[in-house]
Structure formats: C-alpha cells, structure tokens
Amino acid sequence: MLLSINVLAVDLRDLTKMAKAIITFKLMPESVEVDLEPIKEKALAIAREAGSIGEMQSRIEPIAFGLKAVMVLAMLEVEGGDFDGIAAKMQEIENVQSAEVAKMDLALG
C-alpha cells in the first residue's frame, strides 16, 4: 500500500512539470491616437522570446471612450514562468502606458 502512494506522489510531481498556462496579457496605449498594430507585433515578439508554445493569438478590444487595449494570448510553461516579468517587458514598448497579466488559465499536456 505504501509503495502505491509513493508512486502516485511521483506521478503528481511529473504532472506539475508538464503544466502549461494560457496567459492573457492586456496592454493599454498612452492615448486613443496610438497605432496599435506595432504594439501588437512587438508584444507577440516578446511573448515568443519568452518561450511561448505553439500559435499565439492577439486582438484589439474596445475599453471606453474610443480607447482600445491590445490583448495577447500565449501558452507558456508554468514552472519557472515569470509572467509579470514578461508583462513588464511589454510595458517598455513605445506608446504603451501599462501592461499586465489579465488572465491565467491552466492546462495540462
């Protein structure tokens, strides 16, 4: 009985090593006049450099009063992932007022 419990513990540790997260980054421009396409392309490049797995998605989402946000979805490894650090790099993009992790969904596989 004890042997099967130890095996189960090893299997659970292996699952956590395989865990991936779908991270949604939200980037807010400095004003409504800012061209969002360069921001979107640079944010996708930063996510790719950070180790994004597979195809990424991006969209422009209306917020209020003509202001729009750039939303970037990327799948990243959970173990060792510095998602706030990636958002901080995105915030350094020209004409970006703020960048944050807006959502995190876990996926196994």
Describe it:
The chain is α+β, with helices and mostly antiparallel strands. The protein has one domain: Alpha-Beta Plaits (2-Layer Sandwich). The protein is 37% helix and 41% strand. It has three helices and four strands. Strands 2-3-1-4 form a four-stranded antiparallel beta sheet, with helices on one face.
Q: How far is the N terminus from the C terminus?
A: 28 Å
- Count of DSSP H/I helices: 3
CATH architecture: 2-Layer Sandwich
Specify Rg, calculated over alpha carbons: 18 Å
CATH topology: Alpha-Beta Plaits
Structural class: alpha+beta
Q: What's the shape?
A: elongated
- Write down the domain tally: 1
CATH level-4 homologous superfamily? Ribosomal protein S6/Translation elongation factor EF1B
Q: What proportion of the residues form beta strands (DSSP E)?
A: 35-45%
Count of individual beta strands: 4
Please summarize the sheet with the most strands.
4 strands, antiparallel
In round numbers, the mean pLDDT is 86
Percent in helix: 25-40%
The CATH top-level class label: Alpha Beta
Order of helices and strands: HEHEEHE
Poorly predicted residue ranges: 1-12
How are strands sequenced across the largest beta sheet?
2-3-1-4
